[in-house]
Amino acid sequence: MRSALTGFTSIYGSRPLHLLTMVAGFALLGYILATFEPATLWSGGTWWQTIAVWFAASVIAHDLLFFPLYALADRLLFLGVRRRESRIGSKVLARNHIRVPALGAGLTLLIFLPGIIEQGGPTYQAATGQTQQPFLGRWLLLAAAMFGVSAISYAVRLVGRRRRAATGPTEQTGNAGAAA
After folding, report:
1. 6 within some domain
2. For each successive 10 residues of the chain (180 residues), what is the average pLDDT?
3. Cβ of 83: how many Cβ atoms within 10 Å?
4. In this structure, is residue 145 part of a structural domain?
5. From 39, 125, 150, 170, which residue has the greatest number of CB atoms within 10 Å?
């Protein structure tokens, strides 16, 4: 039994419960697509159905489209950063110094996208007396600031690492011997 489970896991890549969950999820999706009509799912009179449709569509779009794209981008980033770091012999990894501001920029873009693309401009102007034109520039400045702070943090870590490497192990051994 154990060898069958190990064989299944090595071929499929996960445990059988994962496969069962995926099959059940796709069966539910098939049922929904077969029984519901688009007019039933998208009803202007029932607000919660519209929210549920948008939520389901965003989950599907994320899992089928965006996740593979940013997983590929992260893999390419990892390969490029690893190649550069092995060439210069750095022990300070730059990967998270790129990931964190990219995640912050992506999330703020997602949150402020309606303002950036000026969706609902007349309503916004009627409510605030201002236009949505500065949204894109402000988001770009915020993203640039996040990447700038991350670059400064990386530079500080790199300089600190080089200084520790320059002091050498003799000073570190001397301190360890004095403490003992």
Report:
1. yes
2. 80 85 87 73 66 80 85 83 65 82 92 88 90 93 96 91 75 48
3. 9
4. no
5. 150
Q: Which helix (H) or strand (E) holds 106?
A: helix 95-116
CA nearest 142: which of 105, 113, 106, 96? 105
**37 phi/psi in degrees, rounded to 5:** -100, 155
pLDDT at 119: 86
pLDDT score, position 178: 47
pLDDT of residue 144: 97
Q: Domain containing 26: what range?
A: 1-35
Displacement of CA 40 from its chain's centroid (Å)? 33
Q: Which residue has the tokens 């996740």?
A: 67
**DSSP three-state, residue 45:** coil
Report the amino acid identity of residue 179: A
pTM of the model: 0.56
Q: What is the pLDDT of residue 64?
A: 85
In degrees and rounded to multiples of 5, residue 46 shows phi and psi of: -110, 100
* Gap between the Cα atoms of 127 and 140, Å rounded: 24
pLDDT for position 180: 41
Q: How far apart are CA 156 and CA 65, in angstroms?
A: 36
24 assigned to some structural domain: yes
Q: Map tokens 């077969």 to a residue.
A: 34
Residue 154 structure tokens: 């990386």
* Tally of structural domains, the chain: 1
